[in-house]
Amino acid sequence: MIDLYTAPTPNGWKASVMLEETGLPYEVHAIDLMKGQQRAPDYLKINPNGRIPAIVDREEGNFAVFESGAILIYLAEKTGKLMPADAKGRSTVIQWLMFQMGGVGPMMGQANVFYRYLPEKIDLAIKRYQGEVARLFGVLDARLADHQYLAGDYSIADIANWCWARTAAWSGVDTDPFPNMKRWIAEIAERPAAQAGIKVPYDMSALLSSAGSSKEEKTDAFVKQARTLVNTGDAKE
């Protein structure tokens, strides 16, 4: 049994989508970022960085893993799924995983901060980070022009990048210039495990896409939680 400590963010969804894909039994422990539960002493014993997600593998002597990319690798190696066994294939997957960890996630997180969350709108910063997100999307789009998935077969590289790329509208970035990426986003969205994973620890989709809600209304519904993410750093990952 895996204990999953998470909140409804792209980094959190990476872990829950992966758990759904592998079929491993897991128990969800929702971390209330608004209440600062990610800074509680008991949680810091699991994740010393005080962010989400984190897992504890009960079968391995309550072995704890933090950092979303490390969780993906651990679960892939534990199950033998969604990671090639050969050195070159494994390296290719990890390269695209690091692309998300070092590029897509941080840049989209910063775009979210300046476009959505800060009360003061700094146009230069918004354009800077949205522009960098668009550049990174261009890299994904070029790769996906002649690849169904990022690194051969569907893998943890796709899970990591998809959980962020699917939220492009929240960062204020148009995906229309990236048809190959849009195809890939839509294809993964049809996977039952992906559909289930993004509803963990609870489903935010109704609020994010509710009919008749303006962008401002949707933003207001999450602004308190979002500002907490800014303060804790999770939004910047």
UniProtKB/TrEMBL annotation:
Residues 1-83 form the GST N-terminal domain. Residues 86-221 form the GST C-terminal domain. InterPro entries: Glutathione-S-Trfase_C-like, Glutathione-S-Trfase_C_sf, Glutathione_S-Trfase, Glutathione_S-Trfase_N, GST_C, Thioredoxin-like_sf. Belongs to the GST superfamily. PANTHER family: DISULFIDE-BOND OXIDOREDUCTASE YGHU, GLUTATHIONE S-TRANSFERASE-RELATED. This is Glutathione S-transferase N-terminal domain-containing protein.
